[in-house]
């Protein structure tokens, strides 16, 4: 029951990618992470490397799913839309791991 209540209180999605140019003129790809918590929506922009750092920290406290690779075995890198979807799936799985470990 607690798990069901938590799953209805919080929703996380990565609906899009944004590009940002830093001071040096280098373009960065940022994932827009939206969190719906207690009927309020929040968002942050995060780079893939920040998700990797999160993964390393989560591995120390919960059993995490495998982190999605940036590489495709047949191509140099995965298409951005595929990476976005895989990161969203990863976050959803991590949330489920947290909910099940807390019950």
Automatic annotation (TrEMBL):
Name used for this protein in its record: PX domain-containing protein
MF (Gene Ontology): phosphatidylinositol phosphate binding
Keywords from the UniProt entry: Cytoplasmic vesicle, Lipid-binding, Membrane, Protein transport, Transport
Record's keyword annotation contains Chaperone: no
Family in the record: Belongs to the sorting nexin family.
GO CC terms in record: cytoplasmic vesicle membrane
GO biological process: protein transport
Cellular location(s): Cytoplasmic vesicle membrane
Membrane topology note: Peripheral membrane protein
Coiled coil: none
Provenance organism: Xiphophorus couchianus
Domain PX: 1-103
């Amino acid at each position: 029951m607690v798990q069901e209540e938590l799953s209805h209180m919080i929703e996380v999605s990565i609906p899009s990618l944004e590009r940002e140019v830093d001071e040096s003129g280098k373009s960065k790809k940022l994932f827009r992470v939206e969190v719906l918590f207690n009927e309020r929506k929040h968002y942050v922009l995060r780079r893939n490397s920040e998700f990797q750092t999160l993964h390393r920290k989560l591995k120390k406290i919960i059993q995490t799913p495998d982190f999605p690779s940036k590489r495709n075995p047949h191509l140099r890198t995965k298409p951005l839309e595929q990476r976005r979807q895989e990161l969203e799936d990863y976050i959803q799985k991590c949330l489920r791991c947290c909910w099940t470990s807390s019950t």
